[in-house]
Structures are given as structure tokens and as C-alpha cells.
TrEMBL record:
The organism's place on the tree of life at top rank: Bacteria
Primary localization: cytoplasm
Homology family: Belongs to the endoribonuclease YbeY family.
A Pfam family matched in the record: YbeY
GO cellular component, as recorded: cytoplasm
EC number: 3.1.-.-
Positions annotated to bind Zn(2+): 121, 125, 131
This protein's name: Endoribonuclease YbeY
Keywords of the record: Cytoplasm, Endonuclease, Hydrolase, Metal-binding, Nuclease, Ribosome biogenesis, rRNA processing, Zinc
GO molecular function: metalloendopeptidase activity; RNA endonuclease activity; zinc ion binding
Function description: Single strand-specific metallo-endoribonuclease involved in late-stage 70S ribosome quality control and in maturation of the 3' terminus of the 16S rRNA.
Gene (name only): ybeY
Coiled coil: none
Organism of derivation: Altericroceibacterium spongiae
Amino acid sequence: MELDIAVEEPWPEGDWEHLAEKALGALQRFVPELNNERLSTSLLFTSDAEVHALNREWRERDKPTNVLSFPMLKREELLALDTDGPPEMLGDIALAFETCAREAEEKSVSLQDHATHLIVHGLLHLAGHDHEISEADAEAMEALEIKTLAILAIADPYGDRIL
């Protein structure tokens, strides 16, 4: 899968592209349907104001949030996608700087680690996983996040549970 990454102010300088590629590579170990070379995803590192506007327009929620995911394929379509054929847009992800930075500080983790977690979380949403469906779905999604982050030497963001 190809990531099309844009980093806007107020995100500080850093190798956000490399961080996102590492997050995707680790996640692909557990979510092999994301290994399809036909897929592409746009990832926008932006401001709370921009994420707030997107959240209001597309989700009818008038507030910023840490990460937004906009899938363009249903899970069934993703799982059935052949490796031969034209490019397919999996979806878009946007991360809000101020919210991410505040949450990272509150959790006493680095901005890079928290952003990595949110990228993994967003990619799982694009792959059709949803923590809002049921407690079992939430636990399954969290387990994928925890295993993926462990590969990257990032602690369990949900409280260091052992699965």
C-alpha cells in the first residue's frame, strides 16, 4: 500500500513520513489485506481547526478530535480486492496536532509514539475495523493496535494489558 503523506503547520519538523511508513509496515503483519500494492491512503498531519471542520462537515460533530478516518472501500470490498488491476483508494486519515500533543502530554508519552498509535488506529478503521460496534469489536481492534505497537517498541496505549 502506498501512503500519500502531507504535513502541515502546526506539526513540528520531524520525519513523520518515515514514522507513518513504519506504522503501516508493522500493521501489515497482522492485517495482511493492507499489503495490496493497488491500495493508497492519504494521511494528513494538520491542525485542530482543520480536523474540527472535517469532523463538523462529514461526521456532524462540532468539535476537534485526535484522528479522523474516511474509508472509501467496505471491508468486504477490501478483502475481495485482487492484486491485479488499477489503483484503489482505501481512504483518508487526518491527525490533529493540538489534540495529539495534549493527549501525548496527558499520557506521558512522546508525540511520535502517540501519533504512531493514531495512525495505526486510523488505518484499522480504513480496513473496516470499528471499536464502536460492540465491546468484542473494540477489544479485537485494541488487540491489533497493541500487537502492532509492540513491534515498534511502543507501550500498550490502553494500560499495558497483557493479551
